[in-house]
Amino acid sequence: MSEESKAKVEAVKASSKAEKAAADPRTMSVDPATQQMIIKARADGVETIFDRAASMKACPIGASGTCCKNCSQGPCRLTISAKNPNPIGLCGATPETVAARNFARMVAAGAAAHSDHGRGVAETFLAAARRETSDYGIKDTVKLREIAPDFGVEITVQDEEGNVLDRDIYEIAEEVGVKALGEWGKQNGEILLAKRAPKERYELWKKLDVVPRGIDREVVEIMHRTHMGVDQDYKNLIKQSSRAALGDGWAGSMIATDLQDIMFGTPYPTRGGINLGCLNADEVNIIVHGHEPLLSEMIVVASQDPEMIEYAKTKGAKGITLAGMCCTANEILQRHGLPIAGNYLQQELAIVTGAVEAMVVDVQCIMENIANVASCYHTKIVTTNPRAMMASGETEHIEFDEHHALEDAKRIVRLAVDNFQNRRAEVMIPSQRENQVVGFSYEAINYHLGGTFRGSYVPLNDNIINGRIRGIAGVVGCNNARTVHDSSHLILIKELLKNDVIVLTTGCSAMACGKAGLLTPEAAPVYCGSGLAEVCETVGIPPVLHMGSCVDNSRILMAATEVVKAGGLGKDISDLPAAGAAPEWMSEKAISIGHYFVTSGVYTVFGVTLPVEGAPVFKDYLFKGLEDLYGGMWDLVEDPHEMARKMIAHIDKKRAALGLDKGKERVLMDMADRQKLDAA
User: Fold this and answer.
1) 220 to each of 354, 377, 495, 534, how far by Cα in Å?
2) Residue 76: CB partners within 8 Å, gap ≥ 6?
3) What confidence tens digit (pLDDT) does each residue in 127-179 have?
4) Which pTM value belongs to this model?
5) Cβ contacts of residue 612 below 8 Å, gap of 6+?
6) Distance (Å, rounded) from C-alpha 541 to C-alpha 520?
7) Mean pLDDT across the stretch 330-351?
8) First to last CA, the chain
């Protein structure tokens, strides 16, 4: 056999080996329930995202960030090479301009998604405040009174005799609702919640002229600037990206979180289950999937209605199981303790169990293919939002209206119950189901650490100062089918815990942690270094704190602000021994989130890829130049072990800058001592 023939044979063998490896579910997910359902899907002749990821390669030019399709003269593909070291598009756009425009458009789309979610919440909140709907009300009056001054709303009033009286709670709510909704359409001035940031951070934003003027304005301005022939300076494009991203993190998302808490209750620690084993073969199974809790809150009520449960029994079911998928799951879990069926990459697989009567979807992270998968089983896909319809497969649309929300919810639950008798495929529900403790809003952390009557972040700061806790990491973000499902999240977080770094988490990352057993207090002695384990066991908290859905990343911003206010760790978020990561990011929302953390002063590491590799000057600006401006910067690290090393190195650098590089025993300090630390 010739050398050429031998080479061909070896190539065929290698290709066959690669295909087999790609087909092995163990190379696709670390979660046993997911692996089991991938096998069942294939046996049922159903293609899932895992199969498509194995057979479809990513576009290398798009992945590098230098494909421009913003006019019909292209698409222009700009690739730097030895033959062409300075490529330009037909209009003369450089790789830096193209990559910056693409990056800015991702920020705009991500900011728009979270902020449009917030707008819907604000509209419903205002309807509740005006008592235009009987299905929603004001549940957390304490939080309403706490945030009202941030919107310039008075919570007391003087009577004619000069007595100070509490204002009516619905009057306060209406005024807050009007002010909040006005943040989207403002054209000038500043978003109201920018001043929640530490004073030094706010002053820096003012100096750099990046305080957002209004939520919608900044998104629209990005779309204008990135139109062909407008803004062609990558630094100027990133300045506008910063305004839009800050408008997401410190306005759209933050308002959504605040108003959801007031309407539905601020989360406090509660227990709940997670993974596909939460479904029940002898009950009607309904999955709510998406991101907005407005409808899911009503489906919770409808599914627990005794009349509806009795109706389910007439159809042969023992009851009704309501479970969540993606961030809607986090919303119903953290407020009601209802189970999570899975995170982003498990949505098709939940249907593959054959046990889901209805998957009810609203917006964001919903695969179009769930309709095709559902057609192979009996599952009904119910769309509920006019922004998010489906062309594939058969779906039912029941449009949600906040003015008759419970009526809509009962209609959906009844549809699911009626579908119970239509099961036609083998029901196979994995046994995997983990318990978890969730609901760590920044208010809950405050009281958990400091007590019911005198909540405080001081105990956290003290333990960072004395070295028991090395630092804080925010690990958030999606799943990505180009990685091994959940693997990077878990490797990174376990490395951080082992090195005494406490972790704050949201979204699909939080679900990965829940499935792996990291969201219970019992996990601390198993996974943590001795210092962090001691603190967690003393306080009774998990080493990974589940703070909510992806829109609730604003809670992490507020937690960081509270740490600054507690004293002893610098005057700004950028001074803190803290870092952020999105190891399996997937959506444009993640880019907006990442950028508002960077511009808030946080070293932020992404995994998988980042569309900047084809523009080295622009990449250098994001990865190095922004630190000079904001004290935070971007980074890309594919290996989660290396990601952990870089985050810990950054935390250690910040500890050294604060003079905390050597462990210190805990010292009880009075206010004068703490003020001296602040001044240092």
Assistant:
1) 44, 42, 41, 49
2) 67, 68, 69, 89, 90, 93, 98
3) 999 999 999 999 999 999 999 999 999 999 988 888 889 999 999 999 999 99
4) 0.92
5) 64, 65, 99, 103, 618, 619, 622, 636
6) 7
7) 96
8) 76
